[in-house]
Amino acid sequence: MQINLLDRVRLGIAVFAAKAITSTIRTFKLGAASVLPGTIGKRLHPQILTMLSQQIKYGVIVVAGTNGKTTTSLLLRGILEKDGWKVVHNEAGANLVNGLITTLLEHTSLTGKLKADYGILEVDENVIPLVLPQLKPKYILALNLFRDQLDRYGEVDTITYRWRKVIAELSSDSILVVNGDDPALAYLGQQLEQGENPKQVKYFGLTEPELYLDKMPHAVDSIDCPSCGTALDYKGFYLSHQGDFNCPKCSFTKSKLSIDSKEWPQVLIGVYNQYNTLAAITTMESIGISKPVILDTISTFQAAFGRSEELVYNGKKVRILLTKNPVGMNETIRAIDRVKQTGGSSVTLAILNDRTPDGTDVSWIWDVDTENFVNSGGTIIVSGDRVYDLALRLEYSKTNLDSGCKLIIKENLQEAIDTALELTPTTEILHIVPTYSAMLEVREILTGRKIL
Amino acid sequence: MNLELKIGWLYPTLMSTYGDRGNVIAIQQRAHWRGINVEVIPYDRDSHPDTIHQVDVIVGGGAQDRQQEIVMRDLAGAKTAAIKAKLDAGAPGVFTCGSPQLLGRFYEPGLGEKIEGMGIIDLDTKHPGIDTQRCIGNVVFEITATRLAAELTELLGGQKPLIVGFENHGGRTYLGPNAEALGKVIKGYGNNATDGTEGAFYHNAIATYSHGPLIPKNPFIADWMIKTALQAKYQTEINLTPLDDSLADRARAAMLKRLNINQN
Question: Looking at domain B4-258, does it have CATH number 3.40.50.880?
């Protein structure tokens, strides 16, 4: 896209100012350098997000959803880079407006030129309506929608309504890649396929009934038909409210999926990562990346720090699985349980904090189905700011007070980690399940490095 | 004698946000661990209104606005009458989060039409609008509802009944002249961030914004409900075997310390 000279000059000034000020801030250690350039940039040129993103040669891929944005984005990036493309990606999870601008500014020269083939931008679900008109993305990935951090986010219905309005306004070049197993998102896709400015929509999902859950999980959001409000019929649930559904009353049902999940491997462990993998594959196939490149990237994939990370500490294998909300934690426990059943893991360390990034309302832990995990034995060490609340949740999961897992309470995190490692045999893997701020502390202890 | 307790759970799939099912789990387990047979009976759109008469205690939680509207439409009429009759007869109940709003006369959301409530308790709730700050945070209040406070103090061996929980609500609730407050706020917003009251108490029904969920850190509430219900059902004095509540004590102590509140 052509930018006129005046705008380019203004943009250049904005970039220069942003970088100069940031450099000063960093030198004098004054503040949050990860979003400051964006704030400054936006002040100097209100259209800065548009001016920057429209320079990305083959367009922007927006990644939205409650869980999985970072893992999916890293996978998309890995595939594109393996195929030889230059990619910009808002890595530090800075997914609000200023974070997006900051990311793009970092790749922009002082003359306002941004050189990149693809932009992969993780965008917070509530910010989508604000930035989509400016980003004009080529692809929009809608991964999933769950309740997240009860004291911050709005309702699923309001979010899909706002997304639909803003995506409908995009040009017909924009393609929506949506989780077809999620009723609210499947409906969103179907509505966008019709209407005044119909969009191309691709659906991803699972076709593996052997993965169905035994019963409907408790932490479920939208199980009413998004079209007529009747309770949906489900053949089976794969993950929370995602599964094989159809409405007994109206004609709402699942759309055809773009790819067959059985034909593809996945990254990391857990059903939730299978979904992330399918989302990435569907998008990359649409762009035209070859199957060997995609497969190769999947097989060598490393997760983002803390999300699902494996390391070795003092000769013991450790896996850190970040937990943020009931759905995520249900899936994490499910994945750990599978390893537990094969004898691969008998010790787990769970850490619950309630600082701002963790969510100050910890009642969500009661929406996690901890019963099977607790009653199947093993040892669970508990720690964190709200260690006793977590311990209560686990205690109340016990069918009988004198059986099930052994609960060890350690207020001090270092002691908790030491105990957990001590109790883990060298043939097994220790699973650490922390909330966000706890994950940062754990990493600092285990890797000796502070992450910002 | 093999005792049996039936827990009526209002709209478990529609009204179960904010960890509310923890209240059901806590009551269920505290009964089960004492050898009492427990059954949880859902009371939802598919239930016959009279089903509520089969239960011994009632638990209600919260929901997002759309779900709350669906619930209210379903409750209107026969179900409201049945629940009112049950509560008037003294069935213990705990209603947290959005359900106190339903028990009241109406709920006025920030945007949209006024939603009529069941009109069982003399209170109403208004949401001042999306731009106003929500009442979010850890909350501590002392139970002041006279009879409840006395019964709980006895259960606690002379200790003052203090509730430690978490509130998260946009709506502000105002008690009418015929309503009795559940407690007085020591820390937090309470009903409306103005008059220092928290919740409401009606016959043996506890209505409160405090979740967390309410019961795990305040287990004496569950024990009071179980004892009260079984005494009425079996027409005999019931003494529940004490359970080891040291985890709850430590959880409360940790929060009170953080909030700089002296337990005395």
Answer: yes
